[in-house]
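Our consortium's second objective concerns turning raw sequence data into structural hypotheses that experimental partners can test. To show how far this objective has progressed, the report includes one record in full. It was chosen at random from the queue rather than selected for favorable results. The single chain below, 145 residues long, was entered without modification.
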Amino acid sequence: MKELFDVVEDFLGRVIQHYGTKVDTIILGGPAIEEEDVNKPVFVLIVIKGVKKISFLARQEIVEYFMKKVEAEKVYSNYVIYTGHRPLIYTLLVDPSELEYHIPLVVYLSTKGVLVYGNMEVPKLPSFGNVIRMGEINKGDVVDL
């Protein structure tokens, strides 16, 4: 896990160094952290003030810009040598005002993720009502909606 966290730390350090005080919150989560497996994906939520005016496509280009910088570093090559593949780091950049949109990945990370930078409350989900986990329903069961 150290190799993966080194890559994530280098990536996040570059984002924080570039955006400074505009970075509000950073949350990590996903199967890599829950199962402690470097071969699984890690999801990164970065809340940055002022990105609301930027399209999601352009936000992904921002993420790729910082990942390209990390690819030239030794921590990245150590991870690739250790695992045999590039790190499965999936990043979502959002504005603080977009947290209330209940984007599924944002809700997942804010409830199950690990806060590594900043301050964030768990969003309230009154509009979702009951959540049905389809994997827990047996064939033939009657479900109240």
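The partners drew two points from this record. Residues 21 and 49 are 9 Å apart (CA to CA). The chain has a mean pLDDT of 86. Both points have been shared with the crystallography group to help prioritize constructs.
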